[in-house]
Amino acid sequence: MANVLLSGGDVSLSDFGPAVILGGGLLFPPVAFLTLMTVRKVLPALSRWRTATIDTCLYAALVLVTTVLSGWWAGDAMTEAVDWAFVTMTIALLDLQFAAALGLSAWGYDRLVPTARPGSRQGGRVQVI
Fold first, then answer.
1. How far apart are CA 15 and CA 8, in angstroms?
2. Is 48 within 8 Å of 107 (Cβ atoms)?
3. Mind listing the pLDDT tens digit for each residue in 48-75?
């Protein structure tokens, strides 16, 4: 991606090789989306803050794993990739990325809460205490 910036913005398909996909963060959004969606489908309906906490912990774990894999793919030693992953996690904490993920998950809870099966006694929504 640095080549694109240095070349004055000329973008070609050859610029989007495996190094950019894995090392540039293009792998993280689909992996995070699929993981969070799968966990939401598997877990039962939980309270707003418990769901937000689980989502934020998964998000943090995915940031850590994808950063380690990106560094390892780029040719770093595994210990160096893990070190940089924790540096990235620290930066994410300091710039409130995880706090924003927690808040957004809690805010979107009403639209993401699983609904009960048709014919249940609650009338469509699961009552969460």
1. 13
2. no
3. 888 889 989 998 998 888 888 888 887 8
